[in-house]
Specification:
Helices cover about 25% and strands about 25% of the residues. It has 5 helices and 11 strands; from the N terminus they run βββαββαββββααββα. Helix 1 crosses helix 2. The radius of gyration is 17 Å and the shape is globular. The protein starts with 6 loop residues before the first strand and ends with a helix. The relative contact order is 0.20.
């Protein structure tokens, strides 16, 4: 040991994990956007953003990408002074173009205040997702952005604790780890067992690995909101 922080890059099952102490970045190949806001589980210490706050974060993500592309946008013009934004929680930014995934990266644990997290993840999703080339200026007008704000992670001791459509999953074994957001099984029409199997695939594990001793299963919930659903509502 040199005393420096240990950083592990693991490419497995279509996901990239950057692990730096308690900080984790995950690329997650989700399905289409347009999901409704997901319900918050009672008893879990999770913030809940109102519509105006959600819109502010979506605008922040879009403006951050525009600034990086040098095609306009001013983050200083956005209203991000609400007390709730001082909270630290995990969050993902997902980018689609015409329904196809174009980038998705997030922190699964809170490491920065919410706006700083969204700025980091908007840049990462647009320009640093290793599955895609960096976003180009000519693509900017075609993107739609979705944000998932996560609850704290909880261990699962009994799979009956998992509710499909409410919970996201993290399955880990050894150096392998895979994550799927709560909206994925609902969009794909999966039952609980399929959800568990697919999360194992994301981790680069056999589909039945969730049953084996030494495999860790964790869950979380999320508040999900995006530009696409707002366009459908006439906003």
């Amino acid at each position: 040991m040199t005393g420096k922080k240990s950083i592990l890059f693991l490419f497995s099952g279509g996901c990239k994990f950057l692990i730096d102490m308690r900080r984790v970045i995950v690329n997650n190949a989700k399905a289409q956007t347009g999901s409704p806001d997901y319900m918050i589980r009672e008893g879990v210490d999770m913030i809940e953003l109102d519509r105006k706050q959600q819109d502010a974060l979506l605008a922040l993500a879009r403006t951050t990408i525009a600034e990086s592309l040098k095609i306009g946008g001013k983050r200083d013009d956005l209203e991000l002074g609400d007390e709730i934004f001082k909270n630290k929680c995990g969050a993902f930014v997902t980018i689609h173009i015409r329904g196809r995934l174009r980038g998705c990266i997030g922190y699964i644990q809170g490491v920065k205040p919410i706006p700083e997290t969204i700025i980091d993840m908007a840049r990462a999703s647009a320009f640093k997702d290793p599955r895609f080339p960096p976003l180009r200026a000519e693509e900017y007008d075609a993107i739609d952005i979705e944000i998932s704000v996560l609850s704290p992670i909880e261990p699962v001791t009994d799979i009956r604790e998992i509710v499909v459509g409410r919970d996201g999953l993290i399955i880990s074994r050894g150096f392998n780890s895979g994550l799927l957001l709560p909206q994925v099984p609902t969009e794909q029409g999966w039952d609980l067992e399929t959800f568990l199997q697919q999360t194992c695939y994301k981790a680069g594990l056999p589909p039945a690995a969730w049953r084996e001793k030494g495999t860790k299963i964790e869950k979380f919930s999320a508040q999900v909101f995006g530009e696409k659903e707002r366009a459908g509502q006439g906003q």
